[in-house]
Amino acid sequence: xxxxxxxxxxxxxxxxxxxxxxxxxxxxxxxxxxxxxxxxxxxxxxxxxxxxxxxxxxxxxxxxxxxxxxxxxxxxxxxxxxxxxxxxxxxxxxxxxxxxxxxxxxxxxxxxxxxxxxxxxxxxxxxxxxxxxxxxxxxxxxxxxxxxxxxxxxxxxxxxxxxxxxxxxxxxxxxxxxxxxxxxxxxxxxxxxxxxxxxxxxxxxxxxxxxxxxxxxxxxxxxxxxxxxxxxxxxxxxxxxxxxxxxxxxxxxxxxxxxxxxxxxxxxxxxxxxxxxxxxxxxxxxxxxxxxxxxxxxxxxxxxxxxxxxxxxxxxxxxxxxxxxxxxxxxxxxxxxxxxxxxxxxxxxxxxxxxxxxxxxxxxxxxxxxxxxxxxxxxxxxxxxxxxxxxxxxxxxxxxxxxxxxxxxx
Length: 410
Known about the structure:
Blueprint lengths: L2 H8 L11 H28 L7 E6 L9 E3 L2 E6 L5 E2 L3 H11 L12 H11 L4 H11 L5 H23 L4 H12 L18 H10 L5 H8 L8 H17 L13 H13 L9 H14 L3 H53 L8 H45 L1
Antiparallel strand pairs: 1-3, 2-3, 3-4
Helix pairs in contact: 3-11, 3-12, 4-6, 6-7, 6-10, 7-12, 8-10, 10-11, 11-12, 13-14
C-alpha cells in the first residue's frame, strides 16, 4: 500500500473528522497542499478544454476501497463533473452530445451526386493546377477561413469526390463519411503512427478484415486485382474498405441508408466510437477521441456546403477552359481543312490544262517542268509560313482566354 492509498483510507474529500493527533494533522496538511495543487492545475486544464457539461463543475476526490468512480479514474483518485446539488454527471457522453446536437442544428443538403467519370476528371484536372492558383481559388470563395479550415479545403478537393462517390455507392450518407474523415485526418493523406491509411485512417488489420468480408467482391478492387495492381497501396481502395467498416458501424445503431438527420447525437457518437474503438468498447475511457469527433461536428459540419460549392466551382472552371481549348482547336482544324480543299482544287485546274498542251511543245517540256517545280516550292514555303502564323495566332488566343480565367479566379 503506497502513501496515497494510506491517506485515502484515512481521509475523504467530503468530510474530515478532527483528530488531536499531530501526526494525522501533519499528514492531512501535506495531503491538502498536494491535493490543492493537483485540483487547481487539473481544473485549469479542464476549464480550457471544456470537458464538463453545462451547469456542472470539476470535482476530484480520493477513492476508498470498493468506491465507484463515475468519471475518469486517475490511479487511486477520481475526477467527476458534478452539478450544484452534488449529482455526478457523465463527463464525456453528455458534454459530447451537447456539442453534436449544437452542430447538427446546421443540417446541410447532401449536394451533387458525383459519377466515376466526374471523379476521374477532377483528379486529372487537379494535376494541371499549381498550389498558388488553388490558394487564390480558396480565397475567392471564402477569404475568412482559418489555417485548419484551409487544410480541410485543400484535402477535400483531392479526396472528397472519391469518398462521396463510394459512400453513396455503398448506401452511406456522405455527410457521415465527411464528419469521420474530418475527425480522423482533416482530409490529409498520411500514414499514422499505428499504420493508419488514407484520409479515413483505417488500420491495416481492419483493412484486411474488410477485404476478406467485402473487398474481394467489390467492383473497384476486383478490377484492380484483374489488372495486377496491389489494392493495399491504392488510396481509393483503402477508402472503400474504410467505408465498408463505417457502414458496419452505422448498422449497429440504425437501419441501412439512414440519413444524418435521422440519427440522434448519441447514435452518431456511437457510430464514431465503433469506427474508432470497436463496438464492444463504448465506455467512458479515452474521452478525447469522441470529444474530437464532437468538436468536428460542432465546428466543421457547416463547412460541408462550402466545400461542395468549392469543388463545383473548380469543376466549372475546368469545363470552361477545356471548352475554350476544344473550340479553338475545332476552329483551327476546320479552317485548315477548308484551305486544304481549296488548294487541291486550284492545283487540279492547271494540271488538266497543262496535260492538253504538252504534245505540241515537247521541246520545252524540260524547262517548263523546272519552272513548275520552282513555283511549287515557293508556294509550299508560303503555305508553311501561313500555317506557322496560324499556329502562333492559335497559341496567343488560348493564352488570352486562360489569362481571362485566371483574372476571374483572382
